[in-house]
Automatic annotation (TrEMBL):
Residues 3-64 form the HTH asnC-type domain. Keywords: DNA-binding, Transcription, Transcription regulation. One of its GO terms (biological process) is response to amino acid. GO terms for cellular component: cytosol. This is Lrp/AsnC family transcriptional regulator. InterPro entries: ArsR-like_HTH, AsnC-type_HTH_dom, Dimeric_a/b-barrel, Tscrpt_reg_AsnC-like, Tscrpt_reg_AsnC/Lrp_C, Tscrpt_reg_HTH_AsnC-type_CS, WH-like_DNA-bd_sf, WH_DNA-bd_sf. It comes from the Bacteria. One of its GO terms (molecular function) is sequence-specific DNA binding. PROSITE patterns: HTH_ASNC_1, HTH_ASNC_2. SUPFAM superfamilies: Dimeric alpha+beta barrel, Winged helix' DNA-binding domain.
Amino acid sequence: MKMDNTDIKILMELQEDSRLSIRELSKRVNLSPPSVTERIRKLEDSGVIEGYTIKINEKAFGMSIQCIIQIDLKNSKFEKFKEFIYNHPRVIFCYRIAGHSCILVKLSAESISEIEKFVDDVSNLEATTSTNIVFSEVPINESVGKFF
């Protein structure tokens, strides 16, 4: 989809606060509410906007320990792994990757023993793991504006 500066402004405003009313958004981008509504619909229909969500602070739920786990797993065990990981309550993200490992998982936990249990459960799938504890998150510019 070809986007102009107004589309980019709409995206940046929605990224900052996806709860903005159409009326408020139209004021911020200097367009009529129907025009803003139509542009948002086009951005949604084209797949530029995939959805609207919230950002959860895991620490507010007592999950003060985060780790990144690299997992090496046989292809024959991948389906079982997907079943295991799909509803796991502590998994923040899971990527199938190419490189040193084949899977990368981010976990939030209340304790090291919770992480150990996760690693033990994954090891039962004949996998090997390498666990890295997160000290802190380095801030990055997440603005959609950096793509333009």
